[in-house]
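Worked example 3 (structure in, sequence out).
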């Protein structure tokens, strides 16, 4: 059985979300549900799980837990009118499964919608057993008891929720209460009951017992006859079949060992300790040198054991009804729902390992929710862009390969953050007695250093600035051609992340983070935590502040470091290779990016307009060129880096620059320097 489609309307935050699954020759594409918290990912999955419980209850009397007082079966998910989207009259979740070429329908409905209206919305001719004639809550399934029995005996049907947890061996049993999960258990019908829980939690003991069975089944019994060792119960007639069976059972064991090996990052095999040895009976050994690397399952990390249990459970469920399926994993069928699949997992497990493990089960339909962009990157690498489907909630918009670049950017940001951390920590460890100033951009420290150099040349400021005892983190952008220097791409997000992370550890010297004032979220994070202060004290000798606002920018407070100069100074031209270049300001252009004298075009129209003060430089996204030079346009905009470097180097064109506004920055730095070192 596979999920064919789900359509939810007005269910909580979901106004209208429809997912149509792709299944070709019994090969279902994995479905990945993404979206911010509160957009309905778990609600969508809960309706799927609820319908699976309803199907099971058709054939198995213990499919749902009974209420203690009424002795009636409880629903896995109750229907509440409070779930209806605000301002709407009804809600429903309609699900269609396909089992042996037949459709099975499920409806979860509340509020004022007639059956005829529902059929029209879903373009449904008829579905046996779904009809209703009132406005009460409705929950119905079109399957038969025979279909339900076949579905759970032939397929793996299970759900790994965000509450899944594996109790470590060091935790006392009283501190882990499994009573809340007991009502979720569904057990297979051997004695009129079921034994494969749909909702899977804390299954390590079951997994361990199954692993021991696998090891025992794959071993050969040895017998001694007349001082000769031989295989027990073996004769020439059954020899081929015997060795074939042992070989196949060995494959089943190797399949599970492969999963564990992928998680651990090396080739392993399962071993057994002697029964009189202290500790666990089961261990994991290295295939390379036969040394025990994991003494027991309890020795695995939370993420490792949780991940192993997911895929071991899939094989165990399939194995319980057909032992051959543990040998040929590509024949296992069914539906596996995993909410927050990245839970407890390190980034390497998310990206490199998890997609590989999913790929081992091509006929299992995985329905997954995640917050992890790295997992999606791994899926793209293992399955290809068209090998799986991503739906973004709350609208269940299908994200195509063009949208996938957003996740690549997120990965690049995480990778860059690690580079920042290494470089900055190295800089922090040098000159540990001198306070360090870390600026948002690679140009900011150059402007500040140029201002200090200027003030040191002025008699009225020389004594004051000579007494300042701090240094800048001097770095270049990551694409800089310079060598033997720190290279970073320190945007506002990286600066905020570094400040927050470093402040958690006591520093031996003061660290001062300075950010531009053009981003509201940065102002909130790094701005003063006291209205009477100009800076924020993070503790542990870490401080931050936002560029103070000069008087000439009071009307336009969203400034960056270049706005410390006048508009005319910002527009200072300089000849580079015979081309006159300068910085531009957004208000020099209209909303279409055309300059007011109709001579120039700016390609970044989002920064253009009469009220815009954004600095437009010569990067690829903000080029400025002459309109009459459209065939082979020459970029006329100067880069911010060149502008800062020329000022620091006191190029003749920039010797007229006024640095007075920078006193505001150094006044705040001086206040921080006066704070006692903790």
């Amino acid at each position: 059985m596979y999920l064919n489609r789900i359509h939810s309307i007005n269910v909580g935050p979901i106004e209208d979300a429809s997912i149509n699954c792709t299944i070709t020759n019994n090969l279902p594409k994995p479905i990945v549900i993404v979206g911010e918290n509160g957009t309905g990912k778990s609600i969508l999955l809960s309706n799927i799980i609820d319908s699976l419980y309803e199907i099971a209850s058709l054939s198995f009397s213990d499919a749902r837990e009974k209420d203690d007082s009424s002795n009636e079966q409880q629903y896995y998910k109750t229907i509440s009118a409070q779930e209806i989207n605000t301002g709407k009259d009804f809600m429903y979740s309609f699900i269609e499964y396909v089992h042996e070429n037949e459709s099975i329908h499920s409806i979860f409905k509340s509020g004022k919608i007639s059956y005829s209206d529902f059929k029209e919305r879903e373009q449904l001719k008829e579905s046996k057993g779904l009809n209703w004639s009132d406005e009460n809550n409705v929950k119905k399934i079109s399957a038969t008891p025979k279909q339900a029995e076949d579905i759970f005996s032939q397929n793996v049907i299970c759900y790994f929720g965000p509450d899944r947890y594996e109790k470590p061996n060091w935790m006392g049993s009283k501190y882990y209460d499994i009573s809340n999960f007991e009502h979720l258990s569904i057990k297979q019908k051997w004695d009129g009951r079921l034994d494969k829980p749909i909702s899977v939690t804390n299954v390590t003991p079951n997994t361990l017992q199954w692993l021991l069975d696998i090891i025992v089944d794959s071993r050969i019994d040895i017998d001694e006859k007349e001082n000769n060792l031989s295989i027990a119960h073996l004769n020439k007639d059954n020899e081929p079949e015997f060795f074939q069976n042992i070989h196949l059972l060995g494959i089943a064991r190797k399949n599970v060992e492969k999963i564990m090996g992928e998680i651990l990052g090396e080739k392993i095999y399962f071993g057994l300790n002697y029964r009189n040895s202290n500790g666990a009976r089961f261990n994991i050994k290295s295939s390379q040198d036969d040394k025990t690397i994991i003494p027991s399952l309890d020795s695995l990390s939370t993420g490792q054991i949780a991940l192993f249990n997911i895929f071991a459970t899939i094989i165990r469920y399939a194995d319980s009804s057909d032992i051959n399926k543990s040998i040929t994993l590509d024949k296992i069928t069914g539906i596996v729902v995993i909410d927050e699949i990245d839970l407890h997992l390190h980034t390497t497990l998310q990206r490199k390992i998890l997609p590989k493990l999913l790929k081992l089960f091509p006929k299992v339909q995985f329905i997954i929710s995640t917050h992890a962009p790295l997992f999606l990157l791994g899926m793209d690498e293992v399955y290809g862009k068209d090998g799986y489907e991503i739906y973004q909630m709350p609208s269940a918009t299908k994200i195509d390969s063009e949208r996938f670049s957003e996740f690549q950017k997120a990965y690049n940001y995480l990778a860059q953050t690690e580079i920042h951390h290494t470089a900055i920590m190295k800089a922090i460890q040098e000159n540990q007695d001198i306070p360090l100033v870390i600026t948002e951009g690679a140009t900011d420290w150059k402007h500040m250093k140029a201002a200090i150099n200027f003030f040191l040349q002025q008699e009225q400021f020389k004594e004051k600035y000579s007494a300042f005892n701090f240094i800048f983190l001097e770095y270049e952008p990551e694409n800089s051609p310079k060598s033997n220097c720190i290279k970073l791409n320190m945007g506002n997000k990286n600066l905020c992340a570094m400040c927050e992370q470093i402040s958690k550890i006591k520093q031996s010297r003061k660290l001062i983070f300075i950010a531009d004032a053009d981003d509201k979220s940065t102002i909130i994070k790094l701005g003063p935590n006291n209205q009477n202060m100009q800076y924020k004290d993070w503790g542990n000798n870490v401080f931050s502040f936002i560029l103070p606002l000069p008087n000439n920018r009071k009307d336009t407070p969203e400034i960056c470091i270049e706005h410390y100069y006048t508009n005319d100074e910002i527009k200072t031209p300089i000849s580079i290779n015979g081309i006159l270049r300068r910085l531009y300001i957004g208000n020099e252009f209209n909303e279409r990016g055309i300059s007011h004298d109709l001579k120039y075009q700016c390609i970044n129209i989002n920064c253009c307009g009469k009220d815009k003060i954004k600095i437009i430089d010569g990067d690829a996204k903000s080029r400025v060129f002459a309109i009459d030079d459209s065939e082979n346009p020459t970029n006329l905009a100067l880069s911010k880096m060149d502008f800062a470097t020329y000022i620091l180097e006191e190029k003749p064109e920039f010797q007229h620059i006024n640095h007075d506004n920078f006193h505001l920055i150094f006044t705040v730095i001086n206040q921080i320097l006066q704070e006692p070192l903790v």
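Notes: Confidence is low (pLDDT under 50) at residues 175-191. The chain has 16 helices and 31 strands.
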